[in-house]
Automatic annotation (TrEMBL), chain A:
Organism placement in taxonomy: Bacteria, Pseudomonadati, Pseudomonadota, Alphaproteobacteria, Hyphomicrobiales
SUPFAM superfamilies on file: MetI-like
Name listed for the protein in its UniProt record: ABC transporter permease
Family of the protein in this entry: Belongs to the binding-protein-dependent transport system permease family.
Subcellular location: Cell membrane
A single BP term in Gene Ontology: transmembrane transport
Membrane topology, record value: Multi-pass membrane protein
Organism for this UniProt entry: Bradyrhizobium cytisi
Any Gene Ontology CC annotation: plasma membrane
Pfam families reported for this sequence: BPD_transp_1
Residue ranges occupied by any ABC transmembrane type-1 domain in the UniProt entry: 58-242
From TrEMBL, chain B:
Keyword Isomerase annotated: no
Species: Bradyrhizobium cytisi
PANTHER family: ALIPHATIC SULFONATES IMPORT ATP-BINDING PROTEIN SSUB (PTHR42788:SF13), TAURINE IMPORT ATP-BINDING PROTEIN-RELATED (PTHR42788)
GO MF annotation list: ATP binding; ATP hydrolysis activity
Domain ABC transporter intervals: 20-249
Phylogenetic classification of the source organism: Bacteria, Pseudomonadati, Pseudomonadota, Alphaproteobacteria, Hyphomicrobiales
Family: Belongs to the ABC transporter superfamily.
Record-given protein name: ABC transporter ATP-binding protein
Length: 253, 267
């Protein structure tokens, strides 16, 4: 099947879901207080973005998400490189990491609040903690699973540990790391929104939960649509970055 | 690059020190004796081939020269100095070029790796990489990734990376074993030429008896369980050698018989 018809199909599916949504609401099958029509949702969204404070709230959520993601990515890559390259670090740290990994970040929020209070940096720390795993685990694997033949090449050339990490480890890990960073960004968005909901810090999360509690359904759905758009845009952007960072993966004879 | 001086230096020491010397070498690995009682020398600039059945320790022999393995007993010397680890004077070409090249670097980048390791400044690298690409017949392919090159071309990249080290000892571990017959012959002639130009000493492991006689000044035949030297054959064939005329030479055929009989006996 051609690329063109695949794309056309995806647009068609999206449009028919919107159409179905419109039909369900205009026929009165579902009350607008539970599910507003897409047209009124988008109109409200546009109004909020242009005249209200929705744009500022979106920006503050995205800022928090991106800061948390940067922390998670840097931490994940540095810690992952250390654990991947050093067998000793692997032995020492793996059990602790395996204990921490399954903890849902949302359960740590109350702990964070109790220990550090409702500080914005506390939320940032929780976001980074919850989103570090998709980066950390592939980084460890990428740095530790270097072909033994390449290790031999490095040894024969007398390549030092730092140059080995940068010239062999990092590129070997890069495809997995970038894929992990994409997953991590999604995790960041989720934890940011949940965190905002729980800690009532300015952002889309708190706006959505306030809208839900006061039955402002167009605001609620507008927020959700906005979050979906943010997530999709992030993923598309990172996909492009990933392709640019790993050109050899597309190189075929 | 001070190519000329590095070419002349080993020649000056030629009479003094063998390039590679094994002195009663034994290696135990995992409770098993892999090679035992290995004693031989390779003169500077000599092309020495090593043949023998699988499990006779051919690859182990190379690793002992690189210093990645240390003998349990005896001593290995390179240019008169006891081996205690890898040195950039020694380059090794592996059979599995696909695994020995960095997939994330272009052909030029892979060759530059050796220059980076030697601390050659960035500006000087490009020119030397271009010269090396030209030397192995890959001019114009420098910006291709290994995945975009044929097997023969990938092996040329690996050879170029080894030559970039300016090695005085070149080790080759069945370098052409995975290539088709035509590519293989082309590379045999090329390596003979490149080695002669560089003046490096070569230890060339192969399981192809014809290849060993065609390329070598001497052929070491090993025996398995444990690996030990069974026979050393001097190859007196004139150089430069020719794929047709050399292989039809009566001496070539005689040596082939000798080696073949030997392998039959010890296999």
């Amino acid at each position: 099947m051609s690329n063109w018809s695949l794309r056309a199909g995806s647009v068609l599916v999206t449009l028919s879901i919107l159409l179905l949504w419109q039909l369900v609401t205009t026929t009165g099958l579902v009350q607008p207080i539970f599910l507003p029509s897409p047209s009124s949702t988008f109109a409200n969204l546009l109004r909020g973005l242009t005249r209200g404070d929705l744009l500022a709230l979106t920006i503050s959520t995205m800022e928090r998400m991106i800061h948390g993601w940067t922390l998670a990515s840097l931490g994940g890559i540095l810690l992952g490189a250390l654990i991947g390259l050093s067998q000793r670090a692997r032995y020492w740290l793996t059990p602790t990491l395996e204990l921490l990994r399954p903890l849902p970040a949302s359960t740590l929020l109350p702990v964070g609040i109790a220990l550090f209070g409702l500080h914005p940096n506390m939320l940032l720390g929780i976001i980074a903690f919850g989103a570090i795993w998709p980066v950390l685990l592939p980084t460890i694997h990428g740095f530790s699973a270097i072909d033994p033949r390449l290790r031999e090449v490095a040894k024969n050339l007398g390549i030092g540990p730092l140059a080995f990490a940068l010239k062999f480890g990092l590129p070997n890990a890069l495809p997995d790391v970038t894929a992990g960073m994409r997953l991590s960004l999604t995790a960041c968005l989720i934890i940011t929104v949940v965190g905002e909901m729980i800690t009532a810090q300015q952002g889309l999360g708190s706006t959505i939960i306030m809208a839900a509690r006061s039955f402002r359904s167009t605001d609620l759905y507008g927020g959700i649509v906005l979050l979906g758009a943010v997530g999709a845009a992030n993923n598309a952007l990172l996909g492009l970055v990933e392709r640019a960072l790993t050109p050899w993966r597309r190189a075929r004879a | 690059m001070n190519k000329t001086s590095s070419r002349l230096a080993p020649a000056a020491e030629a009479c003094a020190q063998p390039a590679i010397a094994f002195d009663g070498v034994r290696l135990d690995f995992g409770g098993k004796c892999v090679v035992d009682g290995l004693s031989f020398t390779v003169a500077p600039g000599e092309f020495a081939c090593v043949v023998g059945p699988s499990g006779c320790g051919k690859t182990t022999l190379l690793r002992l020269v690189t210093g990645l393995l240390s003998p349990t007993r005896g001593e290995v010397r390179r240019l008169g100095v006891t081996v205690d680890g890898p040195s950039r004077d020694v380059a090794i070409v592996f059979q599995d070029y696909g695994r020995a090249l960095l997939p994330w670097r272009t052909a030029a980048g892979n060759i530059a790796l050796a220059l980076e390791a030697m601390g050659v400044p960035r500006l000087a690298r490009a020119e030397r990489v271009a010269a090396l690409l030209d030397k192995v017949g890959l001019a114009g392919h420098g910006d291709k990734y290994p995945a975009q090159l044929s097997g023969g071309m990938q092996q040329r990249v690996q050879i170029a990376r080894c030559l970039a080290q300016g090695p005085r000892v070149l080790l080759m571990d069945e370098p052409f074993g995975a290539l088709d017959a035509l590519t293989r012959q082309a590379l045999q002639d090329e390596i003979a030429r490149l080695v002669r130009d560089s003046g490096a000493t070569v230890l060339f492991v192969t399981h192809d008896l014809d290849e060993a006689i065609y390329l070598g000044d001497r052929v070491f035949a090993l025996q398995a369980n444990p690996g030990r030297l069974a026979e050393v054959i001097d190859v007196g064939l004139p150089r430069p050698r020719d794929q047709l005329r050399t292989r039809e030479h009566p001496e070539f055929l005689r040596l082939r018989h000798v080696l073949f009989d030997h392998v039959q006996k010890t296999h």
